[in-house]
Amino acid sequence: MAAIFHYNPDRPFRASPELYLCYWGKEACAPLHSFGPGVRDVYKIHFVHEGKGIVRVEDGETLTLTAGQAFIAYPERVVFYQADAAQPWVYSWIAFCGDQAGEILARTRATPEQPVFPMDTRLMPKLYELLNEAEENTATRDLRLRALLYEFFSVMVEQAPVSAPGRAAVQVQAKDAYVHRCLDFLHSHYGEEISVGQLAAIVGLDRKYLSAIFKQATGYPPQRYLLQYRMERACGLLKTGRFAIGEVARSVGYQDALLFSKMFKKTIGVPPSAYRDNL
């Protein structure tokens, strides 16, 4: 997958905004794909969904990152990062600026010298998709993009508080990396037929063990998580008012519109037609 960039089409309300999302994107990197050594003019956070690579900051050590970790490129600070030759990473990113950016990051354990922190399993793995969805609604786009950015920071402060030990930021358990690989696959292929056995084969784990660690990390077994995610995406499509129920059903992995309607009502509480009509 070539790099996909989305630029915020809404300019900040004032010349020096408190917090502003500049752009976001995602890329499945080629082996040894790299940036730098160089500097960014805004804050840029990369979220590693699959594979691995290295990050080296100015006057700092070289850190190896795997799925389930994220790192920050600070503005005007030299950074180098590179995808692994054998298992190049898949990552997404957000870039932001503003008077509050440094103050908020100071509430986390991430620093220019130790820019790595652990991802959560609820928001960060699907932040790219959520931003894309928010971008589509021009009437509320600016508010929704800003809300997602603030929600991300609230999760980051909880996930990597400043009081936590610094070295823990660069450690990730193998099982967490497996879960994040599964999440990335589910978020990219939710419109296709997916089984737990297929997920287990992709990450090379026993299906029972995978289900156990996935539920421990997300609160849901894989199929339940997939159902919830499909219905979230369906809600987003229905909110646009542009698509028929059958089109929405097929877009989120259901060839049978009646089965989709049944599962939608069971999950959301109302049929998809009523959900759309009541917006």
Automatic annotation (TrEMBL):
Gene3D superfamilies: Homeodomain-like, Regulatory protein AraC. Keywords: Activator, DNA-binding, Transcription, Transcription regulation. Pfam families: AraC_binding, HTH_18. This is AraC family transcriptional regulator. Residues 180-278 form the HTH araC/xylS-type domain. It comes from Paenibacillus oralis. SUPFAM superfamilies: Homeodomain-like (SSF46689), Regulatory protein AraC (SSF51215). SMART domains: HTH_ARAC. PANTHER family: ARAC FAMILY TRANSCRIPTIONAL REGULATOR, HTH-TYPE TRANSCRIPTIONAL ACTIVATOR RHAS-RELATED. InterPro entries: AraC-bd, AraC_XylS_family_regulators, Homeodomain-like_sf, HTH-like, HTH_AraC, HTH_AraC-typ_CS, Tscrpt_reg_AraC-type_HTH. It comes from the Bacteria. CDD domains: cupin_MmsR-like_N. One of its GO terms (molecular function) is sequence-specific DNA binding.
